[in-house]
Design a protein that fits this description.
Tet_transcr_reg_TetR-rel_C_sf, DNA-binding transcription factor activity, transcription regulation, 200 residues, DNA-binding, 9 helices, mainly alpha
Length: 200
């Protein structure tokens, strides 16, 4: 966590620099020296406010997670409360469009996923993000399916989001948000048809 007193203007500047350097050279080669040069600040500032590379990576991931959370909220706020299937797709879209689909953000996500397997604090952040996604999905799915099945389908959609997103970031052409929407809608339609066959 950054120390209290870190100028607000510096945080986005350093987060942006961290992502740019990770995109260019990868996480392991993304040294404090390279990041500070990219941001136009001294290495001392990073070490003082973030305690080094690990703290800066944590703050970078917090910034990305906040952006994702805000995007989901914006998507949902523009949809009727009873448009549950549309709201599910809104949640899906938030994971594949705009900021989250930028190459530098995608590469930082991949680095974060890898790093979090061996770091308790980053693993906790990943867990919070996972639970937030599942919670959003369950809220909408419980209006359409029995509780047990809603939970199962929420996990299914989350797995599809992660898998499609991972494949997209490793593809030179990037993430195909339309294809992601098509695949997840197909999965959801089949789940709903199984429990509500008479509605077809």
């Amino acid at each position: 966590m950054p120390k209290v007193g870190m100028p607000d203007i510096r945080k986005p500047q350093l987060v942006k620099a961290t992502m740019a350097v990770i995109e260019r050279v990868g996480l392991h080669s993304a040294s404090i020296s390279l990041i500070s040069k990219e941001a136009g600040v001294s290495t001392g500032i990073i070490n003082h406010y973030f305690g080094g590379k690990h703290g800066l990576l944590e703050e970078t991931m917090r910034a990305i997670l906040r952006e994702l959370s805000d995007t989901v909220k914006i998507k949902l706020s523009g949809l009727p409360a009873d448009a549950h299937q549309q709201r599910i797709i809104g949640i899906v879209n938030a994971n594949f469009e705009g900021f989250q689909a930028e190459n530098k953000v995608a590469k930082t996500w991949l680095a974060f996923w890898s790093y979090s397997m061996h770091d308790a604090q980053l693993k906790r952040l990943q867990r919070v993000n996972e639970q937030r996604l599942l919670s959003h999905l369950r809220i909408e799915l419980k209006a359409l399916l029995p509780d047990e099945q809603a939970n199962l389908v929420a996990h299914g959609i989350a797995s599809l989001i992660d898998g499609i997103w991972l494949r997209g970031t490793l593809n030179p052409e990037g993430i195909d948000a339309e294809k992601a929407r098509e695949i997840i809608n197909d999965y959801l339609d089949k789940q709903l048809a199984f429990y509500h066959p008479s509605s077809l």
